[in-house]
Amino acid sequence: MERVNTRLYVEDKLFEGATVGLDSAAAHYLRSVLRLEPGARVGLFNEREGEWLGIIDGLGKGWCSLRVKECRREIEAERDIWLVFAPIKRSRIDFLAEKAGELGCSRILPVFTRYTDVKRVNTERLAAHAKESAEQCERLSVTRVDEAVSLEKMIQNWPADRRLVVCAEFGEARPIAEVFTELLRDEPDAGLKPWAVLIGPEGGFSKEELEALSRLSYVTPVGLGPRVLRADTAAVAALSCWQAILGDGGMRPPKGTTPVTIT
């Protein structure tokens, strides 16, 4: 498969012969950052039609038009894993949204706990990071970002068929790799079912929150080792373990459609 100059997520319906117009931000990126010209190849994708080859027809200040030529990748099934986390400071929450996308999260849910310091979450900015992450990591879908809610409300609305891994040491939480490996042995298709990972605030969960979580039938407590991890580090560690053992970590890397520069 021939490489393209970059990949862009688009809402437009993609089919052979379609014309796609980009917003001013995407047009600026192609024209002023990548310095592309008419005739350049761009990968256009979404979760409905997969990835298609787009050829730049016209490009100017604040606008770009592309002609959709051919399908490059059919839509692919993805594992269903959510990240639920207590909001953290700006630079680190941006990092978290980006890495959640790279690690295959279908959805991220910020939740306010008793000891959460951050009181507001800019979900629009997080969604932009999630979109950029999908464009760079060869995904065909973009992680959905929900509005922040309280932990109590999250529990009230939680789907009973979705298992929740809580990264918190309440009771005798077993090591995360041990829990996932045992589960995979007893239930080989466990990774095909809905899952979520919950990361608490920097100050930890309150005693009442831990007790409420421990009573839920769909909750599995896990430990992440002997060190105290920052919330963003804990999220990356837990998601990586899940993907490696229950998720798609056993699949081969994609051949890739965008250029890779090795320095």
TrEMBL record:
Every Ribosomal RNA small subunit methyltransferase E methyltransferase domain range: 78-243
Pfam families, A to Z: Methyltrans_RNA (PF04452), PUA_4 (PF20260)
Domain Ribosomal RNA small subunit methyltransferase E PUA-like: 22-62
Keywords in alphabetical order: Cytoplasm, Methyltransferase, rRNA processing, S-adenosyl-L-methionine, Transferase
EC code: 2.1.1.193
One term of GO molecular function: methyltransferase activity
Localisation per UniProt entry: Cytoplasm
Keyword Plastid attached: no
Primary location class: cytoplasm
NCBIfam families for this protein: PRK11713.3-5, RsmE family RNA methyltransferase
Family that this chain belongs to: Belongs to the RNA methyltransferase RsmE family.
Role, per record: Specifically methylates the N3 position of the uracil ring of uridine 1498 (m3U1498) in 16S rRNA. Acts on the fully assembled 30S ribosomal subunit.
The protein, known as: Ribosomal RNA small subunit methyltransferase E
Organism in which the protein naturally occurs: Kiloniella laminariae
